[in-house]
Structure formats: structure tokens, C-alpha cells
Amino acid sequence: MLDRLIRGLTAFSADIDAMSVADVLWLARAMQPEPEIAPPSATPPDATLQPATPELDSPRWDKPPLEEPEPPHEDDVVAPVQDDETGARQGSRTGLPTGRALAQTLDIARALRPFKQRFLNITRRELSVDDTIEHYVATNILTPVLVPAKERWFNVDVVVDGSASMAAWDDTVTELMSVLRRMGAFRTVEKWHIDPNQVKPLLHKTHEVSLKPRALRDPRQRRLVIVVSDCVAEGWYREEIWSVLRDWGSATHTLLLNPLPQKLWRRTGLDQPASRLRQSRPGAPNSDLKFGLSPLLRRKPGEPPWLPLPVVGLSVTSLAQWARTAMAKDPTGCDGVLLSPVGDLSSEDLDHLDEDPPDGRELVESFRLTASGPAWRIVVLCANQDVLHVRVLRFIQRELVPDAQPADLAEVLTSGLFHEAAGSTPEELMVALRDGVSEQLSTYASTLDTWTLVNALTDYTRSEASALGEVTAVVLDEAGELTVPEHLRPFARAARKAAELLEPSPEPEPVTVLPPEPEPEQQAPPPVPTADTLMKGRFVGIGVSSYELVQPLPHAASDVREFGALLRGLVGEPLADPTEPEIRAHMKSLRTKPQDGGALVALWSGHAIPVAGNLRLLARDNDGAIDGIMLHEFALWCAASGAHQVLIIIDACYSGAQLDEAVRTVAAVQEELLAGQVHWAGVLVACSSVETARDGLFGGKLRNLLTFGPRTAEDVWRWSDRTPLVDGGAFGAALLNAWDSDIQRPRFMQYGSAQPMLPNPLYRPPSIVKHLLLAARGGDSPNGRSWFSGRTAEVDRVVGWVRSGVSGLRVVTGSPGTGKSALVGRVVSLSNPVERARLYAAGRAWRHTDPGENSIVANVHVRAMDTNRAADVISRQMVTAGLIPPPEESGRDAAELVGVLARHTGAPPVVVVDGLDEARGESFSIATTLLTRIARYCTVIVSTRQAHRLGGGAPLLTELSPVEVLDLDASNNEADVRAYVLARLGPDVLPSTVDELAKLPFLTAWMVTDQVLADGGADVGFSLDLAFDRELAKVPSARPLLTALTWSYGAGFPEAEWLAVAEALSHQKFSRDDINAVLAELGPQVLQDSEEGSTVFKLTHQTFADHLRMPFTPSRDRVFAPGAELVANALIQLYRQRMEAGVPPNVPGYLRRYAWRHCGNAGGIALDGLRELAMMNRTLLPDIAFAATTVANELAQWGRGDEAIAPLVEAAEHFRVLVPTVRTHLADLAHVLHQLGLRFREAGRLQQAVAPAEEAVVRYRELVAETPTTAEALTHKRLAQRIAKTTTHGGDNPTYASHLSGALVDLSEVYAMLNRRHEALSTARDAVAAVEDGAPQARAMMCLAARCRETGLRYEAMQRSKLAVELYYALSQTNPVSLSALVGALVELSLDYLTLGKLADADLATQQAAEISGTLGRHAAFRPQLADAALSLSVAYSMVDRTEAALNAARQAADLADGSRIHAQALHNLMRRQRDADKPKEALATGLRAVEVCLLPENAQELTTTLPAALFTLDTVSAGLRQPAIVDEAWERLTSRLTGPTLATLLMLRAASARAGDPQAPEWLLRALTHVGQSRQALHDVHEIARRHYDSGPWPWDSTPDWLTVDRTLLRTARAWVFARTYAEERAFLLSHPELLSSTADVAVTEALYGASLVEAQVIQSRRTTAQQQGVEQAYRPWLLASLADEFIDATPARRRELLATRRNELLDRDVRKSVRDNRAVHAMLLLAEKDSDVLDLVLDAQENPELTTEVLRRLAPAATPQALTQAVTALEPHAMAALYKAVAQVRAGDARLALPEVNERLAWINELTYLLPSVPTLAALIRELSAPA
């Protein structure tokens, strides 16, 4: 038989030798399972417990004999069973295996390999055979060559702390001793004990052998002293034990090995200064080690130096670093501490030992927030075990938390959750959970956790004991041979204790049952991703543990089951031990029942065999010869599942075979099935194609990754705790990066665009803005410690605001770095339950007031945000808090948020807004559009620096108009900064350093202390710039990479966008490694966050961003920041690459949200790239529109409004196309049209301004009335008709009321400028009616007063002006910004008094304006407002003949306006006041200056307004001085410098101001015609002025055009027809004036049409042509019907009834229905009017009273026809049950194609259907279908 074995082995491998055969036989014997033990003979019931003697041989490993400890207390519920205990219960002896105390022993031995270096002992010689042979060959003389003997270098003395807390580590030390002895590197390995609590500690080996510590000193330096201690005992807080270590270290290489996690060391006696230690020669004593020393720790001359002491944990990495350092093989050194020769320890260090222990809840919460993931997992698994044997605790660690290190177990044992219950040796020691801990932990233990514990304990109880021995336990057995005492609990009770929590109970062997315990009080579990943050999809799990033909794999099925349980959001039951037919049927169902997108995770765990080049996955009934599932088959089934994100995981031997083929298979199928959609596939295998996989190893790693997250810092950065999901690519990469086993090596390949799909265990809901959180803590630390110090009064004041319950806006301000964010962040932290618990657990009391838990509803850091983004972030938090309902669409803009909050009742919610000044160009918009408006309904607390508008205006704090301000610059924070520095640097820091740091702002102190702690503080500079430069010098690529982050918007750049921008700006290439280096060295300067499901990065401090890139100051010549175009182009290029790779542009991410904003802030050239992308995919049309709007806004802000017109026209076209399908763009369209009208007006193109201004009003009215719309372009007549409606019906939405009022005011101004006074007046009245209060109403009232004044309604004008004054006065009481408007209103009121002859009242109003103007001047930074006020005051004084006062005010206004937008106006006003004061020469000089100012590029808008007025005034002044040549010279200069429409306008105005028949006028007009261009309004005006001069004298032109000689009467008639207000008036006028249809009227009509826009003129001309050919009635019929359709759309339900009664036939005309077909609700009503008028009456009732809607639908469901019911539902949309009643109509019509609701909506459907079932019995089938499982 042996021969056959040898032949077989040699056939397998030619390298088999005798030793290998022996090893194989030994291993086979060792792996053979123990034979069954024959049952022992029965023992009488009263017999004592005796060890059972097996009939067969005992296992190979000897068990240590049981010792006889003291009996435990009767309250102990678990204890080892002893031989001499008797009692009344029967049981049988069993063995419970225990876990290994020291994991990774092989890796530890490898880490210590440097000690295998041999020592050359020159005192001993030995024969060198090789040297002797070489000498003989060289000399032919055989002479023995002796060399120094090579021998093992060190004797090792392991000194173990003998205190009680170290009893739990005896097994660990024993295994460590075994490793040291087995590795063959040391001469001797001895073990000693030392008691640190003794006054004079002694070394003990046995009870008889004791030595003084100095015995271990070795002058030969060939000894290693390894001190093993957790440093928890009281002695480590005293000097004596440290003196022993210093004595050893001065002569011997000494190491302190602390088994606790490193983060816990500072909580023990090991609280010494840390340093990096380096060795100069192997084995040198500690005194020879080199180390870096902070200036804060330097000794005074003459003092003994610090003594370094290496300190390591039980991790392989730290031991390896120490070993290499000790043998001088690693110049980087190892970690250690510095021991002072002077005893600095005092009794105060022991004060914590006398404190009262915290309660169970505090203990658990503190541990949960600070513990490592594996440690927390161990504790949760022990939740229902009140008393535990320590060895069972190790068993839980090894088997159930295999990723846990000994340090994690140490963290558990020293957590304070346990106390010693009994015993002091490893065989005896038991621990018990403290009071209240078990109840708290049980809330975190899931049913899966409990089942896992039960199964593991049951399985291992039946298995053979490990090599380390077993704990004797008793299983209840009535026929057993042992009698078990009732008060003892066998060790197997742990399984039963866990099983008690399960229903139904599992059926393991009967064990002791305890009486039921009271249920613990329930506590909220730790946060987990909510349903809306989970990827929807399917889990396919196949685990084969039991095989019919091959050996079993115990872990395979459980690995799959437990992994699937961790995939929250993915559904699917795994298959356990299936046959091949079962697997094929299951996998084929993926194709036959495909999913609609989402994710698919498929895990196979079992055997696999490569056969004929194909990897076959074996089912239960396979043997692998010719059967099994081929890997590419499995991949093909997964690819055809319909999932967009597919992750395939194979845990099997040789699984790396065909890995690339599997990926190609999935990619090919996805390309075919999912073309044009984003998709991804990844394949992760357990090993390579030539490796076997160990059962359970790979599965455990998968679970650990999904339970605790990644290990490496690189992956932790990317698995942001703000991201609920991670993508499959990140998952695979993290597994490979964390792999630490040499047994097998996994492989991973991927394809496509990975999207988030797997739950992120690091995720924590972002309840606190991370910037605020870090600022409040005063630094970043692994355990989340807070160093917030002092500032009690400041915090109390902010807390007072929070708790006041009073709405309004409060501000915390101060210079950069004064701690604004820290202050408000502290209050936010104490409001958040999680951070609040962390601060409580830290045990540091605070003196300031507590704001209370959940006292703050929303907090946001608005750096780089726009207004709508900030509003959406606030809205989401308010929705989460249940304060407001969720939005109908994906987001909520500022106007909508204000509208929702206006309807909120109850106490005002508290909102904290940080970094308002850091929002770049959006700061003032956020302040005025969002914050000041929501402050009416909320308590808004804003932290911001003061900021100023670049174009002038009120500063930021003034715009905010806070009710209270906290200025941190006024606080003396030196004491607080000092406390902060001492808290972070400790008491050993040099006083001079503290003094320097205490003088700095908080931010600078933070940065400098970070650097002192990081590198010892060498060469620290006490300034922020130096601190930043030191940080940047750490990594060469830091500056370009971090500069790139300054360009990010929102929460920051994702990694790919970060790299793209950095490379574009620096013209260098960067990789992921460069980012890793920056994050590793400058991590505190980079804030990791999440947005759109991706991990993003931005700079922590705005001050750092300003240091890297100076803030850009735009101007008229340079509107867009340099570099912005490079950034935009780089991002657009990245966008293009992704789209070309098949990634749709609407995939959530940074580019989708912010690419348009980068293009908009870079200018028109960057916008071209976005247009090219939109040609590839039209879903980017909104992005073009948004970017174009941004470009236009930037251009208009800097006086380049004419250039802003083209991008606004483009934006309007895109939004118009989008509105019918995406109504949210209606507000965007209205805004763009409003802006377009303003830009046309500013450019003097008044006729072109009318159409967009009118349409803007229509669109805002649709928003306010919430009426459906198609956003089609409307002609002037249809716009005028719709604008004429001054009321909106019942469902009015106040959100956009102020916008509507503003648009009406601006339209009124345009009408007035076109002399359309009647329309201007009615529009102004509409503007007043649209709003109820506030600044919009005040502005509307001023507008109405002006329109009344223009139309001769003088008394009403005065009354309206008085109301405007009152409104502005009320506003100015809370916001000084309104003071300048108040001055303007008083001036207008003074003018009204003058027109009514009330001189005294006019004088009083003027005096009040002067007084307020003086008040305005006392407010800082109000120069622009003061200039406006002074200008208005000057006009007011002139009206009441106070010439001198008017002149003084005019001078003040001119001085204040210098360099501003109103400088030219102020100079013109000054010229007029100087003229009135009879100072013509001064007026002449001022006038010439005014002309030059108007010609400046930034004052282009003044060329057609202020400049002509200044020239006319200059003409009168020069005439009075008899110097007319001055004016002519000015005109010559103008005509030589200007061209185009501007020159045409000036010449036209000059001709208009000249007397009729002026001989120079024809020349001016002729020249104007050559420059007028395509402006129809300009042509109209030039022609009209020319006709006036033509009629008054001879005309010098060579030819006379027909427009000059047109019949004047016919022209007036044509104009009356063209400008009729409605189609009906236009038709009636044309019927009464048929002469307009003759050819003789062509010229008159053409001239009249010049007064209309080009589009309107073309439409009117088209109607005239149709009238000429088909008659007037036929020409106007479609237009009148379209007008009727508009009226019906805008009408109230009552008006609709009236229209149906009076104009039914017209409404039912086919052209009307065609006109409204895109308005589904109105179209449905007209269909009902035609066929089901009774149903329509009910629908109109429901529209009048929405509360009746449900009742009406219930009545119609059984009575109306299915078609009528469908139309009624459509007419009443939106309604919560609209989809249900459409389904009811389908059921009644016999249509089985029903669209069922989501699972969470089905119950509501079923409830509603129960009302309908009696009258519609056919609905029973629908109810059954809804009740079936989804």
C-alpha cells in the first residue's frame, strides 16, 4: 500500500522526497476526525460529576487537566462544571471548543524574521567548509579555515504584567511565547511576571523564584526585554514601574507590547509623549535610539534627556516595524514614547478611579460611537449573554468576527461594559455585563445575529476541541450520567440563551432553560440607509455545502445566506445545496422575469473544477466530470436579467479561470440589451486560475467589508460616510486592497460605468453639515473628540436665539478665522442626537446653555451654492423632520420654499446657515431671495463675514437686516484660545508657545496646533499663510490639486472631475496616487462629503481657498474669471467622453448638476461645448438654457446688457420647448422672459421689449393660478387679452405673487415709455392687486402713483404716493436698505402735493426726505443708496423753489455717485441745479463732464437716455452764454465717435427737439436713416419726425419716398386698426373701414405696422391678406376662437359655466379643441361638454370646491361611462387617487392592461376600492391582484 501511495505521489509531482511523504502521512493523521466515543456507563443520579473515559484513543492533542476553583456565587448563571459539584439536574458531559487567543500567528512569525539575522561571535570559531575548499583549490594546501561562529543573537525575556486585568491575556501571551520559541530566532525565551502595583516591583518566574528587575540588564546588549501590559493597573500611573523600564532601556533593548488598540492607549497609564524612533545599529539599547523632539518638549540645559521606548500592539504591521527598526533594517523607524527621567505623575491621575460609573445607556452609546467595527460586532453578539467565560468570548471573536484582531477583543474587555464575575486565571475567568448594558445592546442585535450565534455554538459544540483545549460544560440530558447543581449553568447555555430570543425556537440539543427575563426598553437602533437611499434590485445566491459525490464545504451555504442578508434593498432568497436542474431553473427565471433596471448581485459559493478549458461550478449532484454549470453560462444568465448594474461573485477553487471571458460575456449582452442606457458589470473571484480557495475565508471577507467597511485609508476616503451606497467597482477594489492572506488571492475585473448599488456600512445620515461638525470640534480625530473651549457668553447668546421661539434673522459675524463656524457648529452639534450623545460620552462638562435635542431643524453650509440649491438643501431637512410636505418634483426652489413655509403653522423652525460670504457671486441673491424671506416664518441664524457688492450697493449685513448681531471681533478670545491649545497639546507644552498661539485667531491656532502634533512643531510659524505653505510643502502635487478644488461647486468635486480640472489648470498629469498622497498628508484641509450618491471633496476652509487662488474681482472689461474657461472645457470634455462611452447625460452626478454652471460662469465660448453635447443628447437642453441665463446675468450686471440679449433669447426658446413636458421650467421661462424685456428696454428697443415683458406676465400668472400651460409663443393680441384679466381663481399659489407683481410693474413702465397710458395704468393696478404687503407692494404702489400722475389722476396719484411712503417707512424699520426708496417715495409725494397746490405739504415731505437722507448717511457702506437719496432730494428741493438746498443736494449726489452707475445722471442733475441757481459757467463745465462720463464704456446704457437730456440742457446753457458753438462741437465729437443705432437715436432725438421746419433736421434724419439698422421702432420714429418737418417747410432731399407723402388720415386709420386691443375690436374696425383692404392703403398699413414688433406685424399683415382674399369674418375666425380658448383656460369654474352656457357651439368647435389639445385638463372638459354635460357639472363642482373631489369621483365610478370617467379624472388632476380611478375606468371597459401602484401605495388603493366594490363588483379582481405579493 505504501508503494502505491509513493507511486501516486510521484506521478503527481516529481519533487516528492522521503521527507515530503512523511509530512503527508503526519498531516493526514492529524486531519483525521476523532473516532466516536462510546457512551459511558450510567451513573446513579446522586453521583458526583466525573470525567468520562472514552473507549477509544483520545485525540492527538492533550487537554489540560481541569483545576478545582472556588465555587461561584449562586447568582452566577454560567460557569464551568466542576467534578465535585452535585445537585438535582441531570446532564451529560460535552466539550465546548474555544477560540484562538492570538490570530495570524504565521504572519507574526514572518514579521519577526529580521531577528533571524545571526550574530558573529569573534570569541568562538568554527570550521568554514566552503572557505576551506576555496583555500585548498587556490593553494593546493589543505588547511582548516576558521571563522567567527554564527549564533542566534538574542535572549528574550517576556515580562508580563501580573495585575488582574491581564488575566484575560494569559492565553495570548502563551501563544506569543510559542511563536517566539518556534521561529528559531532566539537563544532562549523566558517568561517573567511583574506586579506594577508594588512599591518595589520584583520579577517572578514561580512562587519560589524572584529577582530584582536589574537582573535583566545586559551589558553585552544581546538581550531583548518585551514587557506585555495593558497599562490599566494603578501602578502605571505612578513612577515606580516606569523607573524599572527606564533602567532596562538604558542598557538593554526594551519593548512595551500593549494588547489594547492604539486609540485606547491615551486612556491608560501609557499617556506619554509620542515620537518616531530610529535605530543606528542592530540590538542597541533604547538609550541609543534616535528620535525627533518637538520644541515644546525640549529639556533645559543640564536636565537628563528623554529615554525612548518602542511601543507596539498585537498587529502584524506594528511588530514588523519594530523588528526592522531593532535590527537597523528600516530607516523610517517605529512608533514609541518618550520617558522622562523626572516623575511628572501625581495623584490627580488616579482621580478617575473613584468616579461613579455611568449607566448602561451611556456606556453602550459611548462605546458604539468610539469602538472599532469588529469590537462593536463582538459586543452586539454578546447582547443576550449576561455572564460569559473569556474563552467563549474568544470563540465568538474567532468564528463569528474573523476580521477582529486581538486588539479588538481587548477593546471589548476594557470598554467598561463588563466587570469580572469570577476567577482570576484563564481557566476560571468569567465576565458579566454591567447593569443595564444587556438591555441596551439587545436593541442593536438583529434576528440574524442571534441565529448566527446559535448555529455557531451548536456546530462547534459537536466538533472536536481545538489544540488549545476546551471548557467542560453540561448538556441537559435526563438519561445522563452526571448530576448538575441547579445554581450552575453549563457553558452550552450560551446557545440556548440566544435561542430564547427566536420565534420559533430552534431545536438544538436540550440545554438549561432560564426563567424568562423582562424585555428591555426599546431604543432606536443606529442609523441605517432609508428605503429611498437603497438601490432596488435582486440578489441571486447559490451556496452548496453538501455534495453527494465530493467532500462538503461547511461554510458555503451560510456564507451566501449571511452575505445576502447584508444587501439591504436587494430581494431574493438564496438557494442552499441545490441540484443542477434547480439551479438552471432558477437562473433561467432571471431572463423570463427580467427586472427593470436596478442592480443584480450574484454570489456562487461551492466547488468548481476546470474541465477542458471551461470552469464548471458544481451543484449538489455534480462530480465535475461532464456536468456542472459553466462560468460563462452563469454570467450570461446574470447579464440577461435586465439589471443595469451587475456584480458576479464566485467563491470557488480555480475561479480566476475564464475571468476575462465572463466579463466579455456580460459586456456583450449588456451592449445589446441596454444600448443608450448606463450599465456596468463586474466579476469578483476568490482566487486565481491555479489556486484553491479555503472554505469560509473569502465569504468572511465579503461580509466584513459590507459590515465594517474598507480597511485602507485610500478606500475609506472614497466610501464616504455621507454616501448610502457604493458602486461595485469601489467594492471590488476595497476587497483587493484589504486582502491580507497568502492562502489565495482574489481577482476582479469590471466594465462600463459603475453606479451606487451596495449598502455602505460607513454611511451616517448627514444630519450635520460636515464643515460645521469639524469646526465645532476644533479639529479632526479618529474618535470624533471635540476640543471646543470657552466662548460661554457667545454660545449662550446663540442658544438664546434658538430657544426664543421668535422668527427673524440673526447674524454671527467676525473677521476670518474668529470661529464663526465653530460657534454655530457647537450649537448645531448639541442639537443633533448622535453628536450630542458623543459629547456626553466624552465626559467633559460644558458651562454654556444647552439648546436641547433636535432644536435645530436645518443646517447648511452654502459655500459655492446658488439660491435654489441652498433652498433645496433646507427643504430636504425640513421634509425629513416632518415640518413640510415633500415637493411634487425632484427639488424645491427658493420661491417654492417661501410659499410652503408661509402656510406652515406652529412654532418657527430654526435654520442655521453657515458661510454665506463664501457663496461667491450668489451671496446677495441667497440673502435677499431666500434668507430674508424665510426669516418671516423661521428663526434664521447666519454666520458670515461682511461682504460688499462689486457693482456697489448695500453691504451683505445690511441686506440681511438682522434683528440681532453677534460680532466676534468685539470679543476677547485669548483665554479661550489658550484653553483650546492646552487641551490639544497637553500640559507639557512650552508656555511661550501657548502665549504665542493664544494671541492668534481660532483658525490659525487650529492649523498651528495640527502641525505641532503632526511633526513635533519644528520651525512652526505663527501665521496662517506660513501654516498653509507648510502644509502645501508636504506633497509636491498639493498646490495644483488643491487649487483645482477651489473651482468646485456644491459639496465639491468627485475624483474624476477633480483630476480633470487639476490637469487643465496646471497642464500636468495627475493620477489617483497623487490624490491619495494629498489626502494622506493634508487630509484635515480637505473635506470629504457626498452629493448625488458620489464621494466628493472640497477644501475645509475658505481662507485656505483664498490663499491658493485670490478671489476674482470682475469688471466690465473682464466679466468672467481667468481659468473659468479652462475648467469648463475640461469638464465638458469629461462629459463628452462619458457620453461617447454610453453613459446617458442624465445620470445623477456632479456634471449633471453643475456643468452648465461652470459654462455659464466661463462665458459664451465655453457654452459652445455644452451646445455640442446637446446635439448628441437633447436632454441637455435645460443645461444650455441655464448656462445661457447665467451668462446673460453676468453680462448685464457689468453694463453689457446688449450682449445679454442673444443668450436670453436662446434660453427662452429652450425653456419654451421644455415646459409642456416639465412644468417646473415654467418659472425659468417666466424669469428669462422678464429679464429679456428688461434688457430690450435698457437698450432702447422698446417695441421689442413689449412681447417678452407681456409673456412674462402671462407665465407668472399661470404659476400663481396653477393653471396648465403649453408655453406656446403668443401674439400680442392674445397676450394683451390674457394680461387684461386682473383676478385669478380659487387655487391661487402665493409663491410667485411677488414675481408677478414685479413683472407687471416693469411691463407698465414699458407701456408708459411707449405712451400707451391706458394699458400702463391698468397693468399698474394689476401689479398692486397681485401682492398684499412688503417691498413688492410698495414698488407696485409707486408705479401706480406714477401712472396716475401721467394720466391726470392727480388726487389718486397723491393717495398712492402716501401709501407707498407708509409701506417703505414700515420696511425701513427693519431693513435700512429701504431708506433710499423711502426718500424717493417722499420726493414723488412732494411732486404730487405741488401739482395739487399744497405747497406746505410739499415742503414738509421734502424736509422729511432730507432728514431721512441724513439718517441714511450715518449708516456705513451706504454710498450708492445715499447718492440715490441725494439725487431725489435735489429734485424735490427744486420743485419747492429751494434753489440753494437743491444745489447743495445735487453736489452731494454728484460726489457720492462718482464711479457708480448713476454718475452721469447726478452730473446732469447738478448742471440743471447750477443753471437754476444762475451759475451758467459752472453748469457748462458740469454739462461737458456729463457728456464725457456718458461716453465711458461702462455707461453705454446712458447714451440714449441721460446723454440726449444732457445735450439739450447744455444747449440751453450755452445759448444763455451766447456760445452755441460749444454744443455744436459736442455734437461733432459724438457723431465722430458713435455709430449704428445709438447714433441714429441721438440724431433722431436732436431732430425731434428742433423746431418744425429746421433746415438742419433733414440732414440729421438722413444720416439717422443710414445708421438705424433693423430697428422697427427707430424706423417708425424717424419716419414720424421726418413727416413733421416735411409738413412744415421745403424738403432738401433729392427724392421723396412714399412713406413721406403718405395720406395722413389713412395713416391714422391704419394705426387705430393695428393697435386695437383685441381681435374682436380689430375685426369690427376693419369691417367699418374697408378702405384699409385696398391697395392704396398698403403704404399706410406698412407705416402703421412699424409701430409693432416684426412677428406681430407679420401676423397682422397675414390677416389682412386673408381678409382681402376670403373676407374679414373668415380671416378672424381662428383668432377669435383661439382667444376664446385662452379665456376658457384662464377662467374660474363659474366663468367656465357661463361661457359654456353662452358660447357653447364656439367652444365645441374643432379649432378650439385643437388649440387646447396640449392642455389635457381643459381638453377633457370640452370633450365632456360635448357628450357628458352632467359629468362636467360635477367636475366643475369639484373644481370650485376641491374637498368634494373624492366624493365626485366615487359617484362617477359606477355611473359614468368608462370614457367619461377617464376624462373626469383627467380634468381633476392632480389628485391623489387619479391613477386609481383611471384603473377603475379600465376595469369597467374590460381593459386588462392595468398600471398597478408601488407596494407602499397599494393599501390606500384597496381601502378606496372597498367603497366602490358594492356598486362595481368587477373591482374584486383588481383588489385580489393588489393583495397578491409584489
Automatic annotation (TrEMBL):
Residues 35-78, 502-529 are annotated as: Disordered. GO terms for molecular function: ATP binding. Keywords: ATP-binding, Nucleotide-binding. InterPro entries: AAA_16, P-loop_NTPase, SAV_2336-like_N, TPR-like_helical_dom_sf. Residues 57-76 have a biased composition (Basic and acidic residues). Residues 505-529 have a biased composition (Pro residues). Residues 790-936 form the Orc1-like AAA ATPase domain. The keyword ATP-binding applies. This is ATP-binding protein.
